[in-house]
Structure formats: C-alpha cells, structure tokens
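To the wet lab folks,

You asked to see what we're planning to order before we commit. Fair enough. Below is the target structure as tokens, and below that is the sequence we designed to fit it. If anything looks off to you, flag it before the synthesis order goes out.
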C-alpha cells in the first residue's frame, strides 16, 4: 500500500497501544499544474490502520480511473447564495422566491457546515425532522426538490463528489381510511345550487365589478393570477373566447410594482370558449371602463387590463388580495362556506364540467393542466356520485316493473 500511515498523537512508543489516538494517512494525488510541485492529501480520524488503508485505496482507485475530485472548502450558505444568482437567470421571479424560501429551510440546519461535510445521514435526518415539526408533506417535498437541485449543482461544479440527497426518502406515513376520506372532503368547491346563490349575491349585493369578476372565474376555471393579467386584446367578442398567455405577480401588493409573467406551465397557455352570458357582462364592463378613461384621461393607467382598478391607481390590474377579500364578503352574505377562495371556483368549474359529462382530458386542457391530482380527485368524486345515482335509478326502474 503506497502512502504514509501514522497514529496521530500516540505516545505508546512501540509498546502495545492502549491510547485513543486516531490513524491518518498522506498520499500523493498528482502535481500542481501551475508550480509542478507534488500535491499531497492528508486525511485523519480513522479508528484503525485498516480503515485508513481502505480509505487511501479508494482515493488511489479514483486517481487511476480519472474520477478523483478534490472537494472544495465552501460553506453551504455561500454556495446557496451563488446557486440562487445562477438559478434566477433562467426562471421566473416567482419561482426564485419559492426556491429562496425552501433553501432557507435547509439553511437552518446546514448554515454552519461546508458543503462537503454534509452527508447522506445528515440530509435524511433533516427531512425526518421537518416532518416531526409538523410540516406538510408537500412542503417537505418542495424543500427536498430544492435540496436536490443545490447538491446536483455542487456535484456538477466539482465542489463535492457524492450527492447526499441521492437515495433520500421523503417521510410518507401510511394514511388511514379516515384520513383519505377527510382528504376528499377537504377539497373545497361549490355545488351547482350554491354557485347560483353565490353569483346572484355577487350581482345583487356585490361591489364594483364583483359580478363580472366572479362570473368569469366560475365560467372559465381561470387561476386568479391569470384573471388579473387578462387584457382586452385577449378577449374575442366575435368568437366568444379568451386567450390566457400570462399571469399577474405582485407579492408586495403595490399597484405600480406588478409584473406580468409567463404562465405556470406551457399547457397553461390556451384559448378557451366562454358562454355568451359572460361575454355580455364583459362588454358591459368594457363600456363602463371607457367612460372611466374619459373621466380620468390624464391619470388613467391605460395598459388594456380587463379587470382594472377603478379607485386609487386607476387602470392598474386589480390585486389578487382584493378579489380574495371580496369573495369572502359575498360568501358571508350568501351564508356559504367563508373558507372558500377564488381557487375554489376553479375546482367548482371542474366539478360542474364533470357533472355535465365532459371528459377528464378535456377538463385538463381547459384548465391549462398537464396533470393535476386535485382536479382528478374532484372529477372522480363527481363521476363516482353520478354512477351511484345511475345505479339507484336503474334499481328503482326495475322495482317499478
């Protein structure tokens, strides 16, 4: 075995050793390309000489195969900072915000470590600890996705040789029957009669633009961010269609600091047909907006937004938060579930399309989904109920013979 092995701190002087000193080794790992001098690697902390010899042999094998990497001494917090800078050059600002939040969760555990010091057990323990803290499995999965991206980049840049996230398992406790049933009940949407009640309340007791906003959401299945980003050029009154090509982003809720981003996925870019009743309501809205533009011609922010603010920062796209608050007000007036959100109208749209006999693939296409578990669960829940009702009707028919 090539290399130099010694027991660090040992003072037994040749006698049978009884001290707790550990073994170390030093081996040549090549020459410095700049100076031509020999480069040596020293590793310590082995309990036995045999362990040190095995570790040295592994390095020599990597050297012979050309796979040896000199891991760099970079702090995890510094590497993440550099990774975020690189990552944000190719994704939406909203996605960067999510990755920063998720990497921040990992930072709570690894901030004081170098990247190369983080091993598989340490990383797996973090995932388990996040679960023990009560974080939702979807949240932990997001953190794990970010972790995999960070360490994969570290391997790519030869900061480390082995990826500690490899083979890591998400904590997935077996669900009980009761939990599965409650999960199904937890998907919130309005039944057909409830939606009629809600829209009547919006028409009769709603604030400015409420009826147009919530009718459009209910009849289209749009995400609320897609609704806020909608421009008149996206609306075709001739074809009764709207085109979804962008989404609204404004985390600080400052009207003038909004951004229009590309949709969530490529499948989110779509053109859908709307009922003529919705198009008529949008025509009324457009006429009122023209009057407002004339009245405030010097100050109106005219960027073609359909659902533009009518007071304070007139013309700017409406806040998502405002639409959420207005929906809560209407739900209360209609004596409906106040925990519902604008996104619940998307689930409502799914359930009513399923009830109308529209197939799951057509619904996915209309909603701009490539694949979505909740949409599938809503669809299956509705169609399962319909099949049960069909069976009961058939049984009743046969009993009446």
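Sequence we intend to order:
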């Amino acid at each position: 075995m090539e290399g130099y092995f010694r027991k660090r701190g040992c003072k037994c002087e040749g006698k049978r050793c009884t001290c707790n000193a550990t073994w170390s080794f030093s081996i040549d790992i090549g020459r410095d390309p700049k100076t031509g001098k020999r480069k040596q690697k020293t590793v310590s902390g082995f309990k036995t000489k045999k362990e040190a010899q095995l570790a040295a042999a592994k390095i020599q094998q990597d050297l012979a195969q050309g796979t040896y990497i000199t891991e760099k001494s970079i702090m995890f917090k510094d590497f993440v900072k550099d990774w975020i800078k690189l990552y944000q050059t190719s994704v939406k600002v909203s996605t960067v915000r999510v990755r920063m939040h998720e990497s921040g969760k990992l930072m709570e555990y690894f901030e004081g470590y170098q990247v190369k010091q983080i091993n598989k057990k340490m990383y797996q323990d973090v995932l388990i600890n996040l679960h023990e803290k009560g974080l939702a499995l979807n949240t932990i999965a997001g953190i794990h996705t970010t972790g995999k991206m960070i360490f994969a980049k570290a391997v790519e840049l030869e900061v480390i040789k082995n990826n500690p996230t490899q083979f890591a398992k998400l904590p997935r406790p077996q669900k009980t029957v009761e939990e599965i049933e409650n999960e199904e009940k937890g998907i919130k949407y309005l039944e057909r009669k409830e939606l009629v009640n809600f829209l009547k309340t919006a028409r009769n007791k709603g604030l400015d633009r409420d009826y147009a906003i919530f009718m459009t959401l209910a009849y289209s299945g749009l995400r609320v961010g897609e609704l806020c980003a909608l421009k008149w050029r996206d609306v075709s009154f001739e074809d009764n269609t709207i085109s979804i090509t962008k989404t609204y982003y404004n985390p600080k809720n400052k009207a003038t600091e909004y951004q229009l981003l590309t949709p969530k996925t490529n499948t989110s870019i779509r053109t859908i047909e709307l009922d003529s009743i919705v198009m008529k309501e949008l025509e009324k809205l457009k006429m009122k907006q023209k009057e407002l533009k004339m009245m405030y011609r010097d100050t109106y922010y005219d960027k073609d937004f359909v659902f533009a603010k009518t007071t304070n920062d007139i013309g700017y796209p409406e806040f998502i938060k405002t639409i959420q608050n207005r929906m809560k007000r209407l739900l209360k007036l209609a004596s409906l579930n106040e925990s519902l959100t604008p996104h619940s109208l998307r689930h409502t749209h799914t359930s009513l399309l399923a009830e109308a006999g529209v197939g799951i693939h057509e619904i996915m296409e209309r909603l701009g989904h490539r694949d979505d578990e909740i949409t599938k669960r809503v669809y299956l829940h509705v169609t399962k109920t319909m099949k049960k009702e069909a069976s009961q009707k058939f049984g009743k028919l046969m009993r009446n013979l």
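Structural context that might help your review: The mean pLDDT is 88. The two ends are 93 Å apart (CA to CA).

Thanks,
Computational group
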